From TrEMBL:
A molecular function (GO) term: triose-phosphate isomerase activity
Subunit structure: Homodimer.
Family: Belongs to the triosephosphate isomerase family.
Official protein name in the record: Triosephosphate isomerase
Keywords, in A-Z order: Cytoplasm, Gluconeogenesis, Glycolysis, Isomerase
CDD domains the record matches: TIM
Organism the protein comes from: Marinobacter qingdaonensis
Amino acid sequence: MRRKIVAGNWKMNGSKDLAKELVGCVRSEAEALDNGVEVVIIPPAIYVGDVVEQAGGKLAVGVQNVGQWSSGAYTGEVSADMAKDQGCEYALVGHSERRQLFGESDELVAAKVERLLASGLTAIVCVGETLDEREAGRAEAVVASQVKAALTKVAAEQWGQVVIAYEPVWAIGTGKTATAEDAQAMHAAIRVTLAEAGAPAESISLLYGGSVKADNAAALFAEPDIDGGLIGGASLKSEDFVSICRAMPAGAES
């Protein structure tokens, strides 16, 4: 049975006031949801403690990035074990902004996935193609390569800790989004790639990210291989984020 997940990535946004007001509102609204969706808040690391406190065990909390080391002289880094110790259940890895702005390679992503899984966290592994790659007809090949590379160190008993988030780079923060049909086609291709890699493809949750909003979430979530969303800007507005959570079809586990 696949988990249905809506995760809000705050990126480099937030404050103690936002953590108190937004998370409190989302928590109270999420308690009334009857569609089986798991709601995850992923703030900057400095606010994880505030968000965990406000979540009150009713929402899951994640961290946006971890180092590839367990501990040591790595000033500014946060380890997977630290995130776990603070109450996190999830962590993003391989987000396109980390790949593009900080030069994270497929090999580094794989090392971080290995570290996350060893800590007991669930890794939300981000993959996606650029506009040039899509226009060149290479979108599926690029995404398949990213998926395979990121998961090379996953042990058979760890697949339950893996979630894949497909975020076409050209749709992140641009207001553009893939059509529901295009997103479904890529998610179906990712499942094929997972099966080829020896993963239990039908049990792994696949999320769509890339300008998901309240007005397009229902169409995206209705597709058979889209199990939820990784939400950026809309996760900073409680009304918008809750509307997206409500858009998950009832009977949410597939």
